[in-house]
Amino acid sequence: MADTATRPAHSRRRFLAGLAGIGAAGMGAAPLTGCSALGLGTGREARGLDVWTLTDPVQNKIQRAALARLRRSHPVPAKLTPFPNTGYTQKLRIAMGTSDGPDVFWSWGGESLRPYHDAGLVVDLADRFGKDTRWRDAFLPAALQAARVDDREPLGLPVRGMQPVILFCNQTLFDEHDLRPPRTWDELLDVVDAFVDADVLPVSLAGAESWCELMWFECITGRLTGAGALRKIFAGERGSWRHPAIEEALDRIQNLVRRGAFGRAFGSVSYGSGGASALFAKGRAAMHLMGSWEYSNLRNDHTRFTEEGLSWVSFPEIPGGTGDPRALVGNNTNYLSINARSSDIDAGLDLVGTQLAARPFIDALIKAGDVPAAVGIEDRLSDLAPDPDFALHVYRIVSEAPDFTLSWDQAMLPAVKEAMLSSLQQIFLEELSPRQFVDAMEVIQ
């Protein structure tokens, strides 16, 4: 997906790291206070538009070009202020609690927007744009979900590409053993058993990093039940972890462990060092469940395999499950929102409401290897994407998804997330039963 000569490979941590820190920071920080989203803040000088984002050489170039186009339609000084991932959420929270915060700011959606929404510090786009819905209709509905708080209109608009979780398959191994990538849960179990019998690791799993294990929990639960049950968990409702799908999903995970789906050493395999990806790409593992950013990593580090031996499918459907098999989980995208205290909300609206959907901006994202959340860009993906087949696959499944759930560890409060990830590792190691997991999470909830 990316130009490997100029851009570092995608990684989930670079895309999402630090989201939960906003809640952690809030536990000891002064509470956020703000003014109405329809009014201007006080104590700010007309300094121009300051847009806070994350440091990324390719993305920052695209964003600065958007600001240059903004200045033609809205003559106001505008600058981009990039920050490293580490510490960004803390810096943003502190700044937003003052009268000198950014005019426009980058977020991951989900719980990262809630403190600012609750304090009245995010401009309500629906109120500002009124009956004009072009700002919202320009983007895929599934990609806007994570920018909503309490099911309201989105409080920000997409500034990056979409990254759903996908089941990658080593097609060379499947062909050698006369197997096909699984489309249903029973087919997955059959494939696992067949590869175990052939002395091939069925699934490459970076068990040293619990967020990689979480993808199995997310996907299985999503197939078993609809998003409604998950929203109750994210909202912190008592009893929500006792939904039958949670325990059943954990049972299914431990069944996979006992069948040998992940081998015996998965607890020592790392994702950050490339260990899980190498096992998969070098033919030692048949499947790898990971976010779509993995395609870029594989293309960068294992080009020949990516071109000749890689295939992909959506997570298998579970018969009897009530979750829609088209539903997705992963990183919806990143968002730009407007600070209600900005001295030039109109310029922020011009940037967010028009420039992020403008053809030059979307085309630049596509050329950089992203799959933008914009509506009706199939032809442009075919013409401009470095890897059109994969880009179109990602675009299609998101376009057809009735629900795109934000990664659970990014949708939960920090204390709940940490307890979940720690207990989940014990589930995979069979040190904790599904019932014990549920009981522990209810105590934390």
List low-confidence stretches. 1-44
Mean pLDDT: 88
- Would you tell me which CATH topology of the largest domain applies? D-Maltodextrin-Binding Protein, domain 2
Number of strands: 11
Question: Which band does the percent of strand residues land in?
Answer: 5-15%
Distance between the termini: 39 Å
Give the helix/strand class: alpha/beta
CATH level-4 homologous superfamily of the largest domain: Periplasmic binding protein-like II
Q: What's the shape? A: globular
Strand count, sense and closure of the main sheet?
Answer: 6 strands, mixed
- CATH class group of the largest domain: Alpha Beta
Estimate nothing, just give the exact number of structural domains: 2
- How many helix segments? 23
Alpha-carbon Rg, integer: 22 Å
Q: Percentage of helical residues?
A: 40-55%
**Architecture per CATH nomenclature, i.e. the level-2 architecture of the largest domain:** 3-Layer(aba) Sandwich
How is this structure best described in words?
This protein has 445 residues and is of the alpha/beta class. It has 2 domains: 12-162 and 332-406, D-Maltodextrin-Binding Protein, domain 2, CATH 3.40.190.10; 164-329 and 413-444, 3-Layer(aba) Sandwich (D-Maltodextrin-Binding Protein, domain 2). It contains 23 helices and 11 strands. It has helices spanning 12-16, 21-28, 57-73, 88-96, 114-118, 125-129, 134-137, 141-144, 171-176, 185-197, 210-224, 227-234, 244-259, 275-281, 293-301, 303-308, 345-354, 359-367, 378-384, 388-400, 408-411, 414-428, 434-444, and strands at residues 49-54, 78-83, 104-107, 157-158, 163-170, 201-203, 285-291, 310-313, 328-331, 335-338, 404-406. Strands 5, 6, 7, 8, 9 and 11 form a 6-stranded mixed sheet that branches. A 5-stranded mixed sheet has the order 2-1-3-10-4, covered by helices on one side. Helix 11 packs across helix 13.
